[in-house]
Amino acid sequence: MTEALEAALGQRDDLNQYKSAKRMLFALQLSLDLEDIHSIAATALTDGADDKSCDLVYIDRDSRSMILAQGYEAGNVSQSQAPQTKASTLHQAVNWLFGANFESDVPARLRSAWRELNEALADGAIENVEIWFVHNLPENNQIAEELQAVANAAYRIIAARYSVDDLSVTGTEIGRETLSDRYEGSRTPILVGEKFTIPVSGAFPERGENWSALCASIPATWLRSQFSVHKERLFSANIRGYLGSTRSQSNINNGIQATARDQPGRFWAYNNGITALVHEFEYDGGESIQVTGIAIVNGAQTTGALGSTDSQRMEEVRILARFIKCDDAATVQDIVRYNNRQNPTQASDFRSNDRVQSRLVKDFEGLGVVGYNGGRRGGAEDVIRRPGENQLAASVAAQALAAFHGRPDVAYHEKGQIWEQDAIYSTVFPERVSARHILFVYSLLRALEQSKIALGSRSSDPQTQRDQELAKWFGMRGSTFLAVAAIGASIESVLDVPVSDRYNLEFRKNLSIPKAIEAWIPVTTSLLSLAPDQLTSPLSSTGGLRNRVAVDAAMKTYRAVVSATSQVNKPIYADFADKVKS
Length: 582
Description:
The protein has 582 residues and is an alpha+beta fold. Helix content is 51%, strand content 14%. The strands form three sheets. Strands 5, 6, 7, 8, 9, 10 and 11 form a seven-stranded mixed β-sheet that branches. A four-stranded mixed β-sheet has the order 1-2-3-4, with helices on both faces. Helix 18 crosses helix 24 and helix 22 crosses helix 24 (479-489). The model is unreliable at 341-345 (pLDDT under 50).
């Protein structure tokens, strides 16, 4: 099974640019069902000299979670386990990231991540902390125990420093087995393929378009025993939902366990039960049902809570269960999407049906651009497949739009709000927005990200003072979105024409995304030279891009400097202006 994983990872040559972080980014994208990993990599990767074992720091206020990861890629894959000392270094990462009292105490490479994480924890915006050790070797109990010790240490530090309710801190080894299971689960919804006989107190069938189901009341002891054997594999159809359930508030889990322990006779009435995909089910009217294969898509929290409950009255607990058989892949995808309570349907899923998004989907198809889905999440195959060169993700397009039109704070800190809040959505996606304009701003963001990666790839070579300053600036969180906003605010000086409505800006020709990025590169190269001096203060201030006063002041100064130097850069700007329609 690991052969299929390695083959899939090998095909993701778009991740080769991240070198030793390739597997770690693949694990992140696969586990969290991320539509576009490259924009996340541009911010989250911290790997490098003096990183204090923090290879990746991913912070997401929308999901109220963060992931700290350390990666290891063994050259000799015949080894029986990854070095335990490598996992132990995560203690160092935890101490620096969570334990440092002042930003000045933290190595320069980690300061921006420390600041963002510190502010998020202080704001109570983080409820779940995951600490990963990602490697390409078999997993080992000793490493699992070490990671649990790391998680316990992190919990103690965070609890002592911040007022965080219902905090969950977990340590996870993502070696061959776990990553392979997650990969296989993304391809085949049901990993647990055994045939089970389950005692029931009655059952009834139901059916609909492309599916059939059997509903029954089952004993909690059966569910608990399956969780003890299969663990994460039991949730293969929706690993993101399972991970989400581990992030859920601890008082909910405590409530589930307390009911099972103290009021087992009421558990069935209080709890919503579980929904599972199965290959087959049989019921002849007796006191048991036969089920072949199982993948729980709703009820991960219930299953996990019962799996860790030590109650002498567990025999009295019963649960409502729906076993659904479906052979249609699209319907399975929708069953997972709409059924899971821990991973609710995103507002963007509903936006995908509105007039603006429906038009944009068609317009992008006409331009030959693939991947724009109007905000609707795709299936797992869309995540694991190598993205094409002319592929555009709606989620990142929304961020680029928000930033270009003056809201880098929303683009970076509140990307989910673009789809969820009507006021923000209508500002970012007004009726007049066009696919060609989205391509214009999206390619600008990509050009900036490519410049950051190119600069990082030269980090081992002697660097000019300018490159050192720019690399330091790029290392600050939210820098690329601030640059998009600053360039958007300065676009009149670049084009040397009045721009009454920036939503009208687009390339004159129907450029592919790579060609559009190529068109931006000379301009962004010139404009980025001003960033370290003019665009640092908002990124280093309290609140970061959420500090609108600091952001507006910096962009005003940046716009003035771009205007003052426009004649010096006129040949570059004029060539670009010839390609742009305003």
